[in-house]
Amino acid sequence: MKYLGYAFLAFLLLVALLVPWQTLTGSLADWKTTTILDRLLLRKVTLANWRGLFDVRQNVYAQWVLVWFWNSLRISGLTALLCSVVSVTTGYALARLQFPGRGLLFSASMVMLVVPGLMMFIPVYMVVYRLGIRGWWGMVLSSGYSAGTAIMTRQFASGLASEILDAARVDGCNEWQLLWYVGLSLLKPLFGMTFSGVFAGQWNNLLWSNVMLKGQAEWTLPQEVLCGISTTAAQSRTTNYGMVCALGVMSLALPVALFIYMQKYVQEGMEGLIRE
Description:
With 276 residues, this protein is an all-alpha fold. It has a domain at 67-215: MetI-like fold (Orthogonal Bundle), CATH 1.10.3720. It has helices spanning 2-27, 36-40, 48-53, 65-96, 102-114, 121-131, 136-142, 147-158, 162-170, 175-186, 188-203, 206-212, 221-227, 241-261, 263-275. Helix 5 packs across helix 8 and helix 13 (221-227) runs antiparallel to helix 14 (241-261).
């Protein structure tokens, strides 16, 4: 029975790795002259798909590829930074400070954690629309708080050693200095875990991107992957699957690299939450 479980886990791992591997190998193969096995084994490697992605003769939207990549990076990075700072500091305040409305803020965060995100979609959109902040700024500001992160930070910060904070107060630190120099350094694992998670979530947030972004100049890279507009040749109007794979690799590379870089903080944050 044990070996059957190992075999099942190996099968799941193979399936999980097969799709990104096929995307990578497909971006380096000529789909007209190779078979599936050739592409999986990286036979006849070529960079023609990557060159065609930025060639206006093969891709009518080649001039927009880097613009959309920058839009994705800007929106995801700013959202992750804002959400990490706001959510982590809010959770720290809920755990360590006494202020009016503290219980109400905690209750509101619990409600936001329970209510499905799709139920909040239309109300949030109406607020953003009436405030006139549609566009990439609207995406950033509307996603600038994570109730789940605030609750996790509150749990994590409640277990911090009070002696460290009291020693900083004795040395003359006010609450803001205490938060900046002591609290955030102790909460760095949660900050890194939140940043990487929010970055990946906003990078792939196709629904909100399609609603909030006003024009082609504000589109994100995953929108291009979804629509397939960069995979249609200008003359033949046929889908170029090699460029689809190249675009997919380009869309996956940065979130995966960030997650690998932040893996240490993600692991420390999860271990801290488990201990608590």
